[in-house]
From TrEMBL:
Comp. bias (Basic and acidic residues): 207-219
Database matches in InterPro entries: Rbsml_bL25/Gln-tRNA_synth_N, Ribosomal_bL25/Gln-tRNA_synth, Ribosomal_bL25_b-dom, Ribosomal_bL25_C, Ribosomal_bL25_long, Ribosomal_L25_dom, Ribosomal_uL5_bac-type
Domain Large ribosomal subunit protein bL25 beta: 100-184
Keyword hit for ATP-binding: no
Source species of the chain: Candidatus Uhrbacteria bacterium RIFOXYC2_FULL_47_19
Entry's Gene Ontology BP terms: translation
Name of the protein in question: Large ribosomal subunit protein bL25
Record region (Disordered): 188-219
Cross-referenced PANTHER family: RIBOSOMAL PROTEIN L25/GLN-TRNA SYNTHETASE, ANTI-CODON-BINDING DOMAIN-CONTAINING PROTEIN, RIBOSOMAL PROTEIN L25_GLN-TRNA SYNTHETASE, ANTI-CODON-BINDING DOMAIN-CONTAINING PROTEIN
Amino acid sequence: METFKLNASIRERTGNQVGALRREGLVPAVVYANGIDSINLSLNGRELEKIYSEAGESSLVELSIDGQSPRMVVIKSVQHGPLRSDIIHVDLVEVKMGEKMEIYVEFEFVGESPAIKASGGMLGRSMDGVDVRCLPKDLVQNIQIDLGLLKNVGDVIHIKDLVVPEGFEILAEPDDVIATASAAEEVEEETITTPADVESVQVVGKGGDKDKQEESGKS
């Protein structure tokens, strides 16, 4: 699979100082690795957004920090600003090429379901992706789901129907449902209810039911 390249610098500014960093077009980041202290970084905002739009969170990224030897990472978590158009923070996780890793891979739904096209059925999606275990070199950006398998209303695509690369281990039950072709739902007629008689509604004030208070006072 394609490997993306990203440059970074060691970040000294933390806490309230990261606001100034963002105004300079930089994005604060942290890279994590097993057995090693996390490293605070700053990334070029435009470069990061371009790579993230292409790589997502299940692609290898070659990270170079201040010109040092590159290390292989994946984008783990991205925080967006209020408008969702800009990235304000990102977490990266370093991977070891010889060790298997667990990562979430999104589904890409492709093709067209004959059941939906011919019968006017509806596509029901139960999952948008799945956790997998694999070597970093075997990572894929997404797993394709062929909607052509849904030939008739009532057909179901399960985890066991997935076609994945060799060495991939799907961390889900084989019978877990990914997508279904269902009959179009009928619109139920609205039930019109008669408004309650306002005069028949008993209003209880802050002190409770007055009649009950008087009765309790007499007892």
